[in-house]
Amino acid sequence: MEYIALIPSYQPDDLLVKTVLRCMQSFHIVVVNDGSGPEYDSVFNMIPKACTVLRHNTNRGKGAALKTGLKYIQEAFKDKEYAVVTIDGDGQHTYEDALKVIQKAEKQPDCLILGSRNFKQTDQKKSVFGNFVARTLMRLSTGNNIYDTQTGLRAFTYKNIENLLEIEGNRYEYETNMILYLSRERIPIIEVPIATIYLDNNSRSHYNPLRDSLRIFKQFMKFAMSSIIGFLVDFGLFALLCAIFPDDMALKTIVANIIARIVASVVNFTINMFFVFKLKRGKTLKYAIKYFILAGVNMGLNTAFVALLVDVAGWNNMVAKLLVEAILFVASYIVQKIIVIRAKRKVE
Which residue has the higher pLDDT, 114 or 222? Predict the structure, then answer.
């Protein structure tokens, strides 16, 4: 399998060149100059000709730079099997760690591999707090307990390129969206430990704590609201139908639940497609098929349990509905954790 290092870069210094030279011994190198300006041409000109250097005329953000690199890689290596590792060019990632995460990706080609830093080893309070907030929101939103949600050292194979190109976000929020989207798609995310390096008190970072944290928080809220709205539509419509259907109607609870689940699934899918992930219209079929298969399975289980509690055990409609929703939510979380744990064991 071909190894490719994708390095987005904005206003770099000589650390970019050192990173490239170190990684050339094992990787094809793709660097994206994200509109750094002519005063930085001397740095990019020091990159060996064997490497590929792509350019944005203006600064478009890290997410946009990563997607530009991925589009190039997808076309340039379209007839090959390959794995990609994204690396920051400011010296925060070592060659050894880049090699470690991409080798994990080769062994587990369907997964996203994250290089996970240990924040107990740093006094960077800004980074520690930011990752704690992002980690907490990620767990609440997806059920995934990911320690380092903001790491830039990530590896994946050609199997996930199409998914990654569909994800919204042009700046730092793109990396958060990546985890949110893949979590929703039930794609396992595996962390491997890497060195925690901050040079010159992290002064080279272009991350703006306030502006970029707000972008990331906004994505969490959009993702969470999609699920909340779906639940409210489901429960509200179920309650309404149970109230208006006659008491002697055959299969009243089952019919009400099926209608409510179908409408809620369509609403949730539409919000995800046009508002949360903003998928392109021509590339939603695969997502729709996978989404509605899972929704169909969930609807079958949900309806069966609700009907059992109401029609057999004699429970109240609303109480039965809420209990079943809670049980299936917990069950879904447990299944996701089992999938991730098994994926980790296979790699290790």
Answer: 114
